[in-house]
Amino acid sequence: MAHDIEIIDAEHTRKSKSGERHLAKGQSISMRMWDAEPAGITKEPIRSDYETVGYVIAGIAEITIEGDSAVLTPGSSWVVPKGAEHTYRIMETFTAIEANSPPTNR
Asked: What is the pTM of this model?
């Protein structure tokens, strides 16, 4: 069975209105990148209909999930359960990768 390989170059994707770049997307998972999000931004709290896992490449952010907060630094990873209210406060220019299941186009 032949498979097509799809290569997504983050440099050539557009930023969404939320600031992230949508990367590779499969049938059961999608990936996006928050690239150099500026310090001082606090994202509006949301609840998503997908699970999210993330990994910090650079910078510092505070994540709050259902009222519990933690600081994310380079090398940190996190999980946001499906349906959990969460928000991010960018404390230092922030770059991170997230994967969502099921896939999202948000």
From this structure: 0.87
